[in-house]
Amino acid sequence: MDKVFKVPSNQSDNITNSNNLLDFQIPEGQFDLSKSYVEIKVLAAGGGTSANITAATFNMSAVMDCENGVTTDYVRPISLVKNARLTSESMGRVEEARQVNELRLLLSNFEEHQSVHLGTQNTGLMAIKAYEQYGGMSPLIDANKEAGSSAAKYLEKSIKIPVSQIVNVGKSKYFDTSRIGRCNLNLELDRSRLSAVNLDSNSDYYNKAAGGLCNGVFVSDAGGAAKTSGVLGKGDGSGAKVYDSDYMEHIPFYIGQPVRLPAANNGTIGGAGIGADVLTVVNDITYNETNGNVTISVADSLGTGATDAIFIEPCKNADLDAATVSLTLNQANLVLHQIGANNQPAEKPSVMNYSVYSVENDSFGNTTSFKRQYEIEPEAINTVVSIPSFSNGILSSKTIDDHRVSVNNELTTDRNVVSYTPLYYHKLNQLGLNMDKSIQNVAQKRYKNNSALDKTNQLTGEGRGEINGLSAIYQPLPASQRFKLVEFEINDANDINQISIFKELIKSM
After folding, report:
1. Which range among 76-80, 151-155, 268-272 has the greatest average pLDDT?
2. Could you give the 3-state DSSP secondary structure of residue 72?
3. Between the CA of residue 339 and those of 173, 176, 177, 343, what are the distances in Å?
4. Tag placement on the chain: N or C end, fewer CB within 10 Å?
5. Of 473, 480, 471, which Cα lies nearest the Cα of 427?
6. Are 253 and 262 in contact (CB under 8 A)?
7. Which residue(s) pair with 158 in the sheet?
8. C-alpha angle 96/23/41, rounded to 5°?
9. Higher-confidence residue: 202 or 413?
10. Helix (H, G, I), strand (E, B) or coil at 379
11. Which run of H or E residues covers position 164?
12. What domains can be seen in the chain, in order of their start residue?
């Protein structure tokens, strides 16, 4: 019978910008590394220093600085891993992987179907931008929207980074350390890129400018008592909104959420305008099955007397005063899937063949065109050239005008390759065939995390130079006994700064 067990890292302290190394020892045995993963505990925390919202639970999320301070991309947990090394007692270095996050964020874009790529948020740090116009809920909080429920709370969440994404030998379904000796997996994390933010919301969604679409307005009433609740109404003032029984999926509020009544563009209480923003907390949500209305109750009185429509919206980052949302990472474990005696192969392989990636970086001083030749190892079967838009980027986000590749002084195409054209996708499919896998997604998209302040869904770019997507140079290589001379010619009117050439090499053990 197979067993699953955890190996704690040698470092048990909090993972910080300076304490960012993880070391795991893989004991002797037979393991299915394709089912194994690194698990890291993440604890979110937050609170406002402004009156009335100090104990509220903020809809906060992790963000990753993917390039030059840009934190709007939805990325997988593998973005945390910068470098990795796997060594064994008898074989020495099994695999060394550099710039892991840059490579895997590019490869996973076409190796996985879109639904698989986006479906990993339950084991990740970020909320994907949802189709609801207000966005969505963070995976780092437990938010309740049902009447009488307890207030939301921050979760101690485990994020999972598959070993198969960290090192290529991690795809192995039979990894026998009883023959090669105990192994060590060493990771360097890109912890400094990770931070936490309160998920700002789009104000237009909650006020009259949104017309009948908005969900953040209390309908007018006759008043007479302290105003602590209201029925959600339409933004055009035509009455209450009607929700189906799945209302919890469509209202942008939860119990324990900090909310604000903005003075600007708001209604009146007792015939007087609201003089200043009011901060309070949602303390209950009720649904009327008879008429489909939803009532929001808040902890603090909003005033007395007859009311005009009052607009409420989630608190913003500015309401936090000194921003206090934060993430703590600790308790890293390597979760290993050990193959039981009954599932051992009848004949154990004497040699294990696998591939590894080496990387070569080059820079060009913001030139608009260059042509340069590189010596590529004989055992290389593929090259993937990542072209970040910024020197500190981990996304291949620069859509160049065109490129052309020569191998051993012979052109591989009869024309320049333009991104997102049939010839570009032909190169991508050739690469997949050389990897012995089918390409699952050719959209080359970037996706938004939930911090984006607009009404669109996940898509931020689909190439063709319209909006920044993901783009690269894909070139399969022939097998050879000697070094290959590979020449890349790259042209772009907006300047090229640097490239990373990832070379896939065949290796055996």
Report:
1. 76-80
2. coil
3. 9, 10, 12, 6
4. N
5. 473
6. no
7. 41
8. 115
9. 413
10. coil
11. helix 163-166
12. 3-198+329-508 (no CATH), 203-315 (2.40.30)
- 123-133 core/surface letters (b: 16 or more CB in 10 A; e: else): bbbbbbbeebb
Distance (Å, rounded) from C-alpha 295 to C-alpha 148?
Answer: 12
pLDDT of residue 215: 63
Q: How far is Cα of residue 241 from the mean position of the Cα atoms in its chain?
A: 33
Structure tokens at 99: 């710039």
**pLDDT of res. 376:** 96
What is the end-to-end Cα distance of the chain in Å, rounded? 27
Backbone angles phi, psi at 171, to 5 degrees: -80, -10
- Are 461 and 445 contacting, i.e. CB atoms less than 8 angstroms apart? yes
DSSP code for 220: P
**258: CB partners within 8 A, 6+ apart:** 48, 53, 56, 57, 58, 279, 280, 281, 314, 315, 319
CA 365 to chain CA mean position, Å: 30
User: What is the tens place of the pLDDT at every residue in 324-371?
Assistant: 788 999 999 999 999 988 888 877 777 888 999 999 999 988 888 989
Who's near 339: CB < 8 A, 6+ residues apart? 2, 29, 30, 31, 32, 174
DSSP, residue by residue, 283-346: EEEEE-TTT--EEEEESS----S-B--EE-EEPPGGGGSS---EEEEEEEEEEEEEPPGGGS-S
Q: Which amino acid is at 28?
A: E
- pLDDT band, residue 59 (cuts 50/70/90): confident
How far is 117 from 429, CA to CA, in rounded Å? 19
Percent helix, strand, coil in the chain, to 5, is: 15, 40, 45
Q: For residues 465-493, b (16+ Cβ closer than 10 Å) or e, as one string? A: eeebbbbbbbbbbeeeeeebebbbbbbbe
To which H or E segment does residue 424 belong?
helix 422-434
Give the pLDDT mean for 57-63.
Answer: 87
Going by C-alpha positions, the residue among 161, 157, 195 that lies closest to residue 71 is 195
CB neighbour class for 452 (10 Å; exposed up to 12, middle 13-18, buried from 19): buried
pLDDT of residue 293 exceeding 50: yes
Residue 470: name the closest of 170, 136, 117, 127 by CA: 117
Rounded distance, CA 418 to CA 471, Å?
A: 10
Going by C-beta distance under 8 Å and a sequence separation of 6 or more, which residues neighbour residue 410? none
pLDDT digits (tens, 9 = 90+) for 487-502: 999 999 888 889 999 9
Distant-in-sequence contacts of 22-26, Cβ < 8 A, 24+ apart: 22/186, 22/187, 22/189, 22/332, 23/184, 23/185, 23/186, 23/187, 24/184, 24/185, 24/186, 24/334, 25/182, 25/183, 25/184, 26/177, 26/182, 26/183, 26/184, 26/185, 26/334, 26/336
Alpha-carbon separation of residue 89 from 10, 25, 58, 93, 95 (angstroms): 18, 11, 48, 9, 13
Task: Indicate the pTM of the whole model.
Answer: 0.88
